[in-house]
Protein: Putative membrane protein
Organism: Kitasatospora atroaurantiaca
Amino acid sequence: MPSRRVPLSLAALLGLAGVMHFRKPELFDPLVPEQLPGDARTWTYLSGAAELACAAAVAVPATRRAGGLAAAALFTAVFPGNVKMAWDWRARRTPERAIAYGRLPLQVPLVLWALKVRREA
């Protein structure tokens, strides 16, 4: 029997990220690629809502399989925002660049984590 800790930890991460999109949207607005139509704040709120929806789906055993797949898709969908951050921060001080560049490979284990949750649901 798979551990409940793995999906609940993912749900907690997604929930925290989703809440932060609403509490501090100004941190996320600059990550929205200009190519997307509409206002960056709208995309910030939409991605926060998607994270909260994925968190809820992953937390509930009956929807965990679909939630894991949705979370993997979400982690993939927001990757262009991380690329934008890395590009925009390329001239910043080394610690800030390290944060921006470090987010890029972090998406891979997040996607794999979500797929593991799906597989074990």
